[in-house]
Amino acid sequence: MNRDLQELRRRIDQLDDEILRLLNERSTYVIEIGQLKRQNDAGANLHTPAREAEIIQRLTSRNPGPFPSDAIRSVYREIMSASLSLEGPQKVAYLGPRATFTHLASRQKFGESAQYVPVTSIKDVFTEVERGRANFGVVPIENSTEGVVSHTLDMFIDSPLLIYGEVLLEVSHHLLSKSGAKEEITKIYSHPHALAQCRNWLETHVPNVPLSEVASTARAAEMASEDASAGAIASELAAHLYGLKVVQSRIEDNINNFTRFLVLAKTAPQRTGKDKTSVMISVKDRAGALYDLLRPFASSGINMTKIESRPSRRKAWEYIFFVDVEGHVEEERMKKALDEVKSRCLFMKILGSYPAHA
Ligand SMILES: C=C(O[C@@H]1C=C(C(=O)O)C=C[C@H]1O)C(=O)O
């Protein structure tokens, strides 16, 4: 072997030994911090997104390169995820089965070392967290092409849980199969939404292959893993978990396809300075009701990022609005605006202040 190469690899080994030593030293502080957190509050959530965001921000802003700043984010997500697992299992319940986009979003937030619990309905995600069987829950809330997930909104009406964070995930579909050879595929399985989102590609590239709807993209992947002549439209995580090969990646017709997910918890996260607040407000159906409700936000200079309305399930002609605004409930102007809104509506519930997706 070339001498220079040998010497360079020897230096890399030395540096890796040093990185390993530092990772272990870092872990001992994480364990100590965990003990302090538990002393202060036995039921505290040990995961602290505000601190994690601060660490990543600090490191990416002072990175001289050539190591890519984007990679710092993923490397540190795993370092912090693994460190956190030393403080005890961080259980995350999500809308399953495995390899769904909600699973992908959960892993993006909590890293590989969290303990993931797939459940079969959005309601079950709420229940797992409410009963303390999971520290966090992850549910979809809106998709840029399919719209809002109203079932998630409805769950907040009666649930005591708070929104702990949000995850924005670019949804990308891939055609997968056991061999990876397009010619061998005689049928394609997927969730109806995924089939709809890839319609143009399918018509152009596999016009004669019959399509078959199944309950989830993950189920499609599972079926393709059991039948060499079947293709599945699913995520890259599904390919990985079900041992499939990518026949063609990114076959969605609209490449700006994002889904927003919410992280649920029993407790509120710390304020970060770049937070969002979600509230649920109900009003009587009368002229000007909505205008009256929203005026306090506008006059306090608070930016609204979303409003959704749902009929209240309690009474006819009562509406519930789900409103997202920029800012934190502990800010004076937010307190003032929310007090004013509260005095004008039938009922108001704060669903949480949480770090806005960076
Ligand atoms: C160590 C802490 O706890 C957790 C672990 C972190 C880390 O590995 O740096 C950061 C934030 C928390 O999720 C902390 O809050 O500082």
TrEMBL record:
NCBIfam families: CM_P2, PRK11898.1. InterPro entries: ACT-like_dom_sf, ACT_dom, Chor_mutase/pphenate_deHydtase, Chorismate_II_sf, CM_dom_sf, CM_II_prokaryot, G/b/e-P-prot_chorismate_mutase, Preph_deHydtase. It catalyses: chorismate = prephenate; prephenate + H(+) = 3-phenylpyruvate + CO2 + H2O. Its main location: cytoplasm. Residues 91-266 form the Prephenate dehydratase domain. GO terms for biological process: chorismate metabolic process; L-phenylalanine biosynthetic process. One of its GO terms (molecular function) is chorismate mutase activity. Catalyzes the Claisen rearrangement of chorismate to prephenate and the decarboxylation/dehydration of prephenate to phenylpyruvate. It is found in: Cytoplasm. The record marks 259 as: Essential for prephenate dehydratase activity. The keyword Amino-acid biosynthesis applies. Keywords: Amino-acid biosynthesis, Aromatic amino acid biosynthesis, Cytoplasm, Isomerase, Lyase, Multifunctional enzyme, Phenylalanine biosynthesis. Residues 278-355 form the ACT domain. The keyword Transferase does not apply. Residues 1-91 form the Chorismate mutase domain. This is Bifunctional chorismate mutase/prephenate dehydratase. Pathway: Metabolic intermediate biosynthesis; prephenate biosynthesis; prephenate from chorismate: step 1/1; Amino-acid biosynthesis; L-phenylalanine biosynthesis; phenylpyruvate from prephenate: step 1/1.
